[in-house]
Structure prediction request, 133 residues.
Amino acid sequence: MTLFRFKLRPGESIFDQVVYAAKKAFISGEFRAGQPFPSVRALAAELKIHPNTAHKVIQHLIQERWLEVRPGIGTLVAEPPTARAGDKQRLLQREVEQLVVEAKRVGLELDDLVQAIESQWSKLERPLEVSRR
Prediction:
């Protein structure tokens, strides 16, 4: 069973990479609300990471409400949170700032950055459209 795409990149913590890959899988529709999420042991074995790291990843995703624990059932993918538009924008403020700084550093124009964002957005939308059919 392949959980989600994960390719180890040097220079970045394994924990951060796995959390990012899991969130991307939730957003892209690879995991749907109510679907069981792998146990610590299964996650560690599938991704070939240390069980302590797998445990920290799962706990982090629970804390951020991407996952929920149901007694007697296990860990499930949570319903997407509903938030006001202002709250959603504040959640990404740091990441947007980093993206803009990096884009300016490499000399991208605003139109190029918007095009890159739209392209990436479309890639994430495609799996959701397929899974809704």
